[in-house]
Amino acid sequence: MNENTKHVRFGGRLVMVGFGSIGQGVLPLILRHIDMPKDRIVIVTAEPRGREVAAEYGIEFVEVALTRENYRAELEPRLGKGDFLLNLSVDVQSVALIELAQARGAHYLDTCIEPWAGGYTDPALTPSERSNYALRESARALRAKFAGGPTAVLTHGANPGLVSHFVKDALLKIAADTGVSRATPKTREAWATLARDLGVKTIHIAERDTQVAAHAKKRGEFVNTWSIDGFVGEGCQPAELGWGTHERHFPEDGRRHGFGCDSAIYLLRPGAATRVRTWTPGEGPFLGFLVTHNESISIADYYTLRDGAAVNYRPTVHYAYHPCDDAVLSLHEIAGRNWRLQPEKRLMMDEIVAGVDELGVLLMGHKKGALWYGSHLSIEETRKLVPHNNATSLQVTVAVLAGVIWAIENPKAGVVEADEMDHARCMDICRPYLGKVHGVYTDWTPLDDRERLFPERLDRDCPWQFQNFRVA
Questions:
Q1: Which helix or strand (DSSP H or E) is residue 60 part of?
Q2: What does the DSSP assignment read for 372-421?
Q3: Predicted confidence (pLDDT) per residue in 3-35, tens digit
Q4: Which residue(s) pair with 345 in the sheet?
């Protein structure tokens, strides 16, 4: 693919809700790879941030905060049959926008299933009600209602989204490298059967961000390489993970939801206060935060095999995220403030001087031990590829582009998740923007080098078991 490749022609209007780091980063990609006139695009956003980027490309910019009371009045006149509602906002309920898009005959895509403002931290809600599991169930409840309707793609950024396609590429690589002769699966059941037959027990979404800015974080400031409000919101939700059939010991503070697909559990603590051991090729072993993400639930659900009501196979799936070092310091500070956001926020973009984002999936338990498969993308490569991005945002924005293209090419798919999409088509679009996409095998397990200083309660017979510990 060259810089001028047009993947698809689109004749409708494109309404972008939200124009933070992801909106600003995806706009040049949309203009580069989707054949559509600029005057058919409008940005609707709650704050002035990004106005100069919209002006650079000659895109209409409307500054208005969408609420429960006004979202229909603001969006209905801008949406009609065959148009596209691209939701890149925070604090605007995804379910409400999906229902509006379906009523107007428009396509839809988001990167996260959002509640209305306050939904992540409302003390009147139970931890289960504040979870991504509950948000996912609320969105999936629309599937039957809108079957065969305009395509609405749920949660298709880097993660969730792109990492689901990484899992499928990784499974095919493991099969080829272990001599398992199998045609590329065409159904959910066939993919799940392949994962089971390969012996995959656990899937980490393992990410290490090493990007660093020219000046360090200040006291009273939250610094990150992508949406600060989005990261803080999900970090304050309960830690969540898909719960595998090989697990022997249920966490003391673990809870089941008691409704829905039952593919995941949650812990009675914030994800940003829970650390897990994981591994990437560039970093080696490290501690990541078990932050809740939709893919932890959707991947576990997608790769579930049942015999009637009985679950015969399911991998444990969770995010293990080490953000940039200044974001770690920011989390430490916000935890000391009892999860109240600092008065200042700084999104790292132009001031980044070095670093990479290493994002992939770590599949463990098969004959070759563990395979990490994913993207190693540096800030230097990013700046050569596309403007208004850093390494973290580009992994998200190119996945947004791929999801929009797939939805246009498959206009009557109804409500879908990344796991149900054509992973090969999405990877073809994304791969030129992901730096080095590769797979690396390792014999590392979460039990490596444990008990070096103190005794621990470990299950040595099950090296892939979920091993976590509380951060005071």
A1: strand 60-63
A2: EEEEEEEHHHHHHH-SS--HHHHHHHHHHHHHHHHHHHSTT--EEEGGGS
A3: 779 999 999 999 999 999 999 999 999 999 999
A4: 222
d(CA 176, CA 182): 8
241: which strand partners? 265
Instruction: Let me know: does 92 contact 209? Beta carbons within 8 Å.
Output: no
The DSSP H or E segment spanning 22 is: helix 21-33
Please give the pLDDT value at position 150.
Answer: 98
Amino acid at 372: W
- Answer whether 22's CB lies under 8 Å from 227's CB: yes
pTM over 0.85: yes
Q: Which amino acid is at 359?
A: L
Half-sphere exposure of 368 (CA within 13 A, CB side): 20
Cβ–Cβ contacts within 10 Å for residue 100, how many? 17
Distance in Å from the first CA to the final CA of the chain? 49
Paired tokens of 447? 């039990």
Q: How would DSSP label each residue in 102-148?
A: HHHT-EEEESS---STTTTT-TTS-TTTTSHHHHHHHHHTTTTTTTT
**Backbone φ and ψ of 223, nearest 5°:** -115, 135
Within the chain, which residues score under 50 in pLDDT? 470-472
The answer to whether 242 and 314 have CB atoms below 8 angstroms apart is yes
Q: Is the peptide bond before 160 cis (omega within 30 degrees of 0)?
A: yes
Neighbours of 315 (CB within 10 A): 26
Q: How many alpha carbons fall within 13 Å on the CB side of residue 334?
A: 28
How many Å separate Cα 395 from the centre of its chain? 10
CA-closest candidate to residue 421, choices 440, 389, 399, 395 = 399
Rounded Cα gap, residues 327 and 334, in angstroms: 10
Q: Name 155's Cβ contacts closer than 8 Å, sequence gap at least 6.
A: 110, 111, 112, 113, 161, 294, 295, 298, 417, 418
Both structure tokens of 249: 């010991």
Calculate Rg over the CA atoms of the chain: 21
Helices within 178-293 (DSSP H only): 188-198, 228-236
Q: Name the nearest CA neighbour of 277 among 368, 191, 208.
A: 208
Please give the single-letter amino acid code of residue 230.
Answer: G
Q: Which helix H or strand E contains 313, and what residues bound it?
A: strand 310-313
For residues 467 and 444, the answer to whether their CB atoms sit within 8 Å is: no
What pLDDT, in 10s, does the model give residues 45-88? 999 999 999 999 999 999 999 999 999 999 999 999 999 999 99
**What are the angstrom distances between the C-alpha of 173 and each of 27, 120, 182, 252?**
33, 38, 11, 36
